[in-house]
Structures are given as structure tokens and as C-alpha cells.
Amino acid sequence: MASENPTASEYIKHHLQNLTFGQHPDGSWGIAETSKQASDMGFWAIHLDTMGFSIGLGILFLALFRMAAKKASVETPRGLQNFVELMVEFVDNSVKESFHGKSKVIAPLALTIFVWIFLMNLMDLVPVDFVPRIASDIFGLEYFKIVPTTDINATLGLSLSVFFLIIFYSISMKGFGGFVKELTLQPFNTPIMIPFNFVLEMVGLLAKPVSLALRLFGNLYAGELIFILIAILPWGVQWMLSVPWAIFHILVITLQAFIFMMLTIVYLSMAHEKH
């Protein structure tokens, strides 16, 4: 940090600030050195830490599952293969129970969402000062966050991808006219109620990506904030509080990945239904 002895408020604000790359007011491009510079960069700024860890954990997910597939053995299955088979079977059963259409995309999509979000959430268990201290001492980076799902931009990106799939499958299964009728002629199937139906259905449709993004972001952001607050306390108290909270947080990060996956399956199942 810029200050060797930061106050509690400065410490919290520092750990909640992303490594931001964007255009400075003078027209030059670079990394923000203060939180004000980051906010002045506006909409087109990029959070390098969020992008880096999201992509890196996605590559890790692909590499692990590819390794398990290449070394798969029917006679002597081992640890990684057993874990991957457990994940695939778990997701496959969830899709069979909740998805009522026919698609070869939904199960792989659900598996990707669950494992990828779980890995991103899992970074919240890394001590709050460990990686940022390395980034500061070795690379001279003032700000560095390692939990992508505590960035609203990442969770909105995930939820908007699901939203576009909902629109795509709704039009593919029902046709454009059927999709428009779904938005205008329900729940009241009469022409005079079309404006009311449209507003009601659009609110419900737009609430899906917003709820997906905010639920995941809110839970992980709150969890990260609690870890940061614990880190401010004396060393002995930190261990008394951080270990139980970390154990409980394992349930939170798993549950949030599961909820995001299940809601995605349910929303896409609804998109496949014809009224």
C-alpha cells in the first residue's frame, strides 16, 4: 500500500479496489495508481485482475478435465478421474431433473458454469494479503484483487451470457412471432391488456440476469469484506475468527455456484417450453 500504516478505512478501501487499466483524462492509456484515477477512466476501463483470474481459472478448469479425460481408465480410476466423473454425474442428474427440453448444449454449459464459478469463488479462501503483497512487492502493483466474482462486472458478464441464451432459445423454439406473443398475450390473453402484459413480462425477463448477477456478487462481496475486516484485528483474534468463517464460507462458495447453475438450467428449460 501507499501508506505503511493505513487506517482501517484505508485498508478496506485499498483491498476492495481492482487493478484498473484505461484512458487517463490527458488521453494516455495506463494502469490507475489511485482509486480516483480508476473512477475517472469511466465505462471502457478494464479490471485486469478480474480478467486475468477469470481466464486463468477457466484454462485451469479445461486443463484439469482434459487431463482426466486423457488418462481415464475403466479398470483403475484414480483421484482426479473420480472427481471429474463425480462432477459430471452430479451435473447430468441436475439437468435431467430440471431441464425438460432436448439440447446437447445445456449439460456442458451447466458443468462449465458450476466448476468455473466454484473455482472463482474458491479464491476467496486465499488470505487477503497474500497475493496482493506479492503483486505489490514483485510487480509494483498498488491494487490487486483475486476473487473475480466479487467484481460486479464479472457476475454481470456471466448473467448476460445466460440472458442472451434465453433469448436465443426462446426465439429458436417458439419463433420470433411466438416469442413476441409470449411477451404480449400472457398472463391476460386479450388485445386491450397487451401494454400491461408487455411491461409485466419484460420486468420478469430482465429480472433474471439482474438477480443472477447480484445474488452471486452480493454473497461473495460480503464474504470478502468479512475476511478483510477480520484481517484488521489482532493476530490471535484473526485465527479465532478466520478459520471458522473460512470453513463456513466453503458452503457459501459451493452453494452460490450451484444456485447459479440451477437457475440457468431452469431459465433455459422455460425458454424451451411452448405455450
Automatic annotation (TrEMBL):
Membrane-spanning parts: 44-65, 105-123, 152-171, 216-237, 243-268
What is the protein name stated in its UniProt record?
Answer: ATP synthase subunit a
Membrane topology field: Multi-pass membrane protein
Q: Which family does it belong to?
A: Belongs to the ATPase A chain family.
Among Pfam families, the record links this protein to:
ATP-synt_A (PF00119)
Which Gene Ontology molecular-function terms are recorded? Answer: hydrolase activity; proton-transporting ATP synthase activity, rotational mechanism
Question: Cross-referenced InterPro entries, in alphabetical order?
Answer: ATP_syn_F0_a_bact/chloroplast, ATP_synth_F0_asu, ATP_synth_F0_asu_AS, F0_ATP_A_sf
The cellular component terms of Gene Ontology attached to this UniProt record, alphabetical and capped at eight, are: plasma membrane; proton-transporting ATP synthase complex
Question: Organism, per UniProt?
Answer: Marinomonas hwangdonensis
Query: Where the protein is mainly located, per its record?
Result: membrane
Instruction: Say which domain of life the source belongs to.
Output: Bacteria
SUPFAM superfamilies on file: F1F0 ATP synthase subunit A
Task: Explain the purpose of this protein.
Answer: Key component of the proton channel; it plays a direct role in the translocation of protons across the membrane.
Which PROSITE patterns has this protein been placed in?
A: ATPASE_A
The listed locations are: Cell membrane; Membrane
Per the record, the GO terms for biological process are: proton motive force-driven plasma membrane ATP synthesis
> Which of UniProt's keywords are assigned here?
ATP synthesis, Cell membrane, CF(0), Hydrogen ion transport, Hydrolase, Ion transport, Membrane, Transmembrane, Transmembrane helix, Transport
